[in-house]
Please model this.
Amino acid sequence: MKKKVGTLVRAQGKINLYLNVNGREENGYHTIESVMQSVSLCDRVTVSAARGADEIRVACNLPYVPCDGRNIAYQAARAFLDECGLGAEVHISIDKRIPVAGGMAGGSADAAAVLAGLNRVLGEPLERERLYALAARLGADVPFCLAGGTALCTGRGEVLSPLESRLSLPLLIVPSRESVSTPWAYAELDRAYGNFASPRGEGMRLAALCRALEAGDAKATAENMYNIFEDVILPQRKQAAEAKRLLTAAGALRAMMSGSGPTVFGLFEEVSVRDEAAHILAKRGFRPKKAEISHRKTQNTH
Ligand code: ATP
Model:
């Protein structure tokens, strides 16, 4: 067996600055239009591999995250080796910081980190196009997690158009212990929107948001943010609704749920106001996490 080579990848979580569901395919998949934004909060994913024996092992600091074939990081490693026709002993260690099942694409970020990490340590066997096609097969959010930055995501979320953003802002991320399963959240939306039998559009607000990001205009960004899930999920998730209310009262430019929730985030203009909001939420029993969004795309592989 050859020498094992390892790399540490910062698997960045995402928030949705905009999330609209505009239709439903015959096979039941929903089509979306979403502005996804990477955040500084990330899982640390160490990937090491040596060509030879075919074995994948996953370790995680959280005992309730499965480390077998149910882990999407494991599935990413399997798919990568199969795609390349390679045998390798792969070890993946995940230090999770992104809230699990929180609407921040934590699992997808780990999967993207494994694809990027394995491609690096195994000598770049996959070129960009094949890597992104593989990412899309693993999950709709995985291509965005591979790309990072700010992007308009359409289709099921896997069709990316990078967006120019000049916005860097402090952020407060508020996880909650209430659970939301993504299939349940979509079923709730289907009930509220008649199974999306007729297509919907929110085009005006989306165009205004993209312009605001490009101009680095924090206020206009805040005004044009949108998440279709909020109206159906927040009335049923009291902690998340309370977190949103507290963030708004504490001076957030805008507080909104990310993805299908229940994680709520607040965007702030000033670090000091964000820090005071963190203090207020902590006193109410929340465990807010300080983070940033940055217009500079951070290099994720070290
Ligand atoms: P999305 O925003 O893409 O809907 P999410 O952030 O809501 O995703 P995840 O954190 O990706 O949700 O986890 C969803 C489920 O997947 C969890 O119940 C968890 O047990 C399982 N899972 C599999 N692999 C992972 C992983 N690497 N990290 C976290 N959860 C994982």
Q: What stands out?
A: The chain has a mean pLDDT of 94. The radius of gyration is 19 Å. The pocket of adenosine-5'-triphosphate is lined by residues 65-66, 70-73, 94, 100-108, 110, 141, 182, 259-260 (CB under 6 Å). DSSP finds ten helices and eleven strands in the chain.
